[in-house]
Design goal:
Layout: H1 24-48, E1 52-59, H2 65-72, E2 81-85, H3 91-94, H4 100-103, E3 112-116, H5 121-128, H6 134-153, E4 156-164, H7 167-179, H8 189-194, H9 198-212, E5 219-223, H10 227-243, H11 259-262
Parallel strand pairs: 1-3, 1-4, 2-3, 4-5
Helix pairs in contact: 1-10, 2-10, 5-9
């Protein structure tokens, strides 16, 4: 969890980190257990309809946001899961406040929702491209804190995951997409253009962490150079968070009926 608001964190954290695992296979074995646990917890969450969970995924291009969603949520009941990918705002969305389109996609009670990018794009991209005045950026940070606090008070638990990939690893993944015909659809020329602003984005993210990592909506750092460790760590955080909630299957509001009395005697 990112807690230090006085120092820059990204320069101190290594995206090559892979924990205490000795191999990818060892991590995947643990992931299998965590997936089973997540499925159990989601079932209770959906039945209880008391809490909801919002998982926000942010990171540089090619950091693995799509892959993280695919791998950690693949084993749960799709009936209680929602995922939204936020792209460039449409004309209608631009005509509203920047949180309008996001609020509509937050999870109702009983659901898990994943945001692939989010309202944080509205303080990152304009900041990097000089389209947002400092006063407006500060105001948006305040709106975000208040928005997330409101969601938390209404029963939505928020997890914000920053997928930290190195600049060299990002280029390697872009090259993979160009060389593999099955991944051409993932390639976007703008990814190469945005690489020119790498350092600016790192600074912008530092401000995001300092301004919006709160007790009710914390930011977690996920080293993302190794896909398998990225997936394991993200899944472990989701499971641990759900386990911290007071989840239980709902009980009947009325006494348990005597089934025998409901069965008509045979003639």
């Amino acid at each position: 969890m990112i807690k230090d608001k006085n120092e820059s964190v990204l320069k101190k954290l290594d995206p090559e980190e892979s924990g205490d695992f000795k191999s990818k296979e060892e991590a995947e074995a643990e992931m299998a257990k965590l997936k089973e646990r997540l499925a159990e917890l989601q079932d209770i969450l959906f039945a209880q309809k008391k809490h909801s969970l919002l998982v926000i995924l942010q990171g540089m291009d090619s950091s693995g946001k799509d892959g993280t969603v695919k791998h950690i949520f693949s084993g749960i009941n799709p009936q209680g899961f929602m995922v939204t990918s936020f792209k460039k705002p449409s004309l209608e969305e631009e005509a509203h406040d920047f949180l309008w389109r996001v609020h509509m996609k937050t999870p109702p009670k009983g659901y898990i929702a994943a945001f692939n990018r989010s309202h944080y794009e509205d303080v990152l991209v304009p900041r990097v491209h000089d389209n947002l005045k400092k006063e407006e950026m500060k105001r948006r940070f305040r709106y975000i804190r208040e928005f997330e606090a409101m969601l938390a008070e209404e029963g939505t638990t928020i997890i914000k995951l920053f997928l930290h990939i190195s600049k060299d690893k990002q280029l390697e993944k872009i090259q993979e997409r160009l060389q593999d015909p099955t991944k051409h659809w993932k390639f976007d020329a703008s990814d190469l253009q945005e690489r020119e602003y790498w350092d600016d984005y790192q600074e912008a993210y530092e401000d995001v962490f300092k301004e919006t990592s709160t007790d009710n909506a914390p930011w977690y750092w996920i080293p993302a150079n190794h896909r398998w460790y990225r997936n394991y760590l993200a899944l472990a955080i989701v499971v641990k968070t759900l386990e911290s909630l007071d989840l239980s299957y709902p009980k009947l509001d009325t006494p348990t009926p005597d089934i025998s009395e409901l069965i008509s005697p045979r003639h």
